[in-house]
Each structure stands twice: as structure tokens, then as C-alpha cells.
Write a structure and sequence with these properties.
The complex is a heterodimer. Chain A is mainly beta. Chain A contains one helix and eleven strands, in the order βββββββββαββ. Helix content of chain A is 3%, strand content 47%. The termini of chain A are far apart. Chain B is mostly beta strands. Chain B has no helices and eleven strands. In chain B, strands 2, 4, 5, 9, 10 and 11 form a six-stranded mixed β-sheet that branches. A five-stranded antiparallel β-sheet of chain B has the order 1-3-8-7-6, with no helix packed on it. The radius of gyration of chain B is 13 Å and the shape is globular. The chains are: A mainly beta, B mainly beta. Chains A and B meet through strand 4, strand 5, strand 9 and strand 10 of A and strand 4, strand 5 and strand 10 of B.
């Protein structure tokens, strides 16, 4: 049981390049999300998904795209990298409270992707 | 916008002492969660307290919630060097919605 796996762990891009951050979970969780973590700002929600085929925007979605074709995978795409997107990106997953009926569930996080845009 | 604000931003204590950190939030919640983040790692869930609960324990952790003051506290008793980490509170706002809003965290350093 690997939990939440993020790849790559580190990446350096040039301004204008595109790339995909991968996230996979093996816990059959319905809910998956992407956060970015910047110094002094905590974690901010980028996009989230409540199940395969369903995605929605979070607090800071501009410049990022997501898709959810399977329960396991939730990739995050940077369309045209900008220096302001330099950050640490975390993927998280959990069971859906709509299904468990037990209220909000604890999130399981990956170890992050450290991304630098030059 | 940040829902939760932790206080203090940084805390250093001697090993064996108790550590208390606080979280304040702005809007009504259904539950509040606390997470730990070790340097260079992802967040790890510690404890969840629901809005109808006032106190919850898990091992050396004690969490309180005061919904009238919109605040929560995390107490770590008998601290250990391994407790050195950043601690974040996270709040939701709607039942059935997994979206969490995180605070900016408290950096805890345990001095051996």
C-alpha cells in the first residue's frame, strides 16, 4: 500500500514550458486535490475532484488544468510555466463524506513536487 | 484567503515540556483538523474534531474546540525531539464538501 505517490519530486522549468505533475493513490479514494505551498502562506487549493470525470476549481486555479479519467490518477498540468508558479505542490486524497456519511474525512498527502520556474 | 491562523508562528521548547499552539478561524465550520508536516515531507493527519465536540484526545495530543470563539488549540504533552515539525489547522465549511482551508502553520522546535 503506497498511499499517495507524486512524481517527479523535483523539477526545474523555463518560463513558457509546460509539464504535468503526476499523482496516484491506491486507496480507492473518491476525493483528490492539488495544493501549492508557499512560504508564509500555508497551503492553497488549486483544483479538486470528487470522483472520476468530475473536477472543480479551488482558490488559485489560474494557469493550471486537471483531469480525472480514473479513480487512481489526478494529474496537474501547467500550461505555460511562469516564475510565480515556483512552489511546492502537494496532492491529497480522501474518502468522500457523501459516501461514508461520516462527515469530512482526513486527507492523505503525497510528499510533494518541488518546482522551480526560471 | 486564509481561514485559519495559527499562533504562535514559531515555538521552541525543551524536550519533555508541553507545547500548545492555537488556531483561529473566521467562518462557521463542521469540523477542524490538525496536521503535522516534517521538513521536506507531506502533511500527516493528526486529529479531527467535529463542531459538536469540545475536546478530543489521541495519545499525547489533546485538541480543544471553542466554536463560540472560533478557535482551537493543540496540546502536545511530554514533547520529544521527533515532534519537531510544522503544525497546521484546517477547516471545512460545508458538510459533504471535502475542501479544506489551511492556516499558515506553527513551526515547533523541540530542543533536546
Amino acid at each position: 500500500n503506497a498511499g499517495v505517490t507524486q512524481t517527479p519530486k523535483f523539477q526545474v522549468l523555463k518560463t513558457g514550458q509546460s509539464m504535468t505533475l503526476q499523482c496516484a493513490q491506491d486507496m480507492n479514494h473518491e476525493y483528490m486535490s492539488w495544493y501549492r505551498q508557499d512560504p508564509g502562506m500555508g497551503l492553497r487549493l488549486i483544483h479538486y475532484s470528487v470522483g472520476a470525470g468530475i473536477t472543480d476549481q479551488g482558490e488559485v486555479p489560474n494557469g493550471y488544468n486537471v483531469s480525472r479519467s480514473t479513480t487512481e490518477d489526478f494529474p496537474l498540468r501547467l500550461l505555460s510555466a511562469a516564475p510565480s508558479q515556483t512552489s511546492v505542490y502537494f496532492c491529497a486524497s480522501s474518502y468522500s463524506s457523501l459516501i461514508t456519511g461520516q462527515g469530512n474525512q482526513p486527507q492523505h498527502f503525497g510528499d510533494g513536487t518541488r518546482l522551480s520556474i526560471l | 484567503s486564509q481561514q485559519g491562523e495559527e499562533d504562535p508562528q514559531a515555538l521552541s521548547i525543551q524536550e519533555g515540556e508541553n507545547a500548545t499552539m492555537n488556531c483561529s478561524y473566521k467562518t462557521s465550520i463542521n469540523n477542524l483538523q490538525w496536521y503535522r508536516q516534517n521538513s521536506g515531507r507531506g502533511l500527516v493527519h493528526l486529529i479531527l474534531i467535529r463542531s459538536n465536540e469540545r475536546e478530543k484526545h489521541s495519545g499525547r495530543l489533546r485538541v480543544t474546540l471553542d466554536t463560540s470563539k472560533k478557535s482551537s488549540s493543540l496540546l502536545i504533552t511530554a514533547s520529544r525531539a521527533a515532534d519537531t515539525a510544522s503544525y497546521f489547522c484546517a477547516t471545512d465549511s460545508n458538510f459533504g464538501n471535502e475542501k479544506l482551508t489551511f492556516g499558515t502553520g506553527t513551526r515547533l522546535t523541540i530542543i533536546p
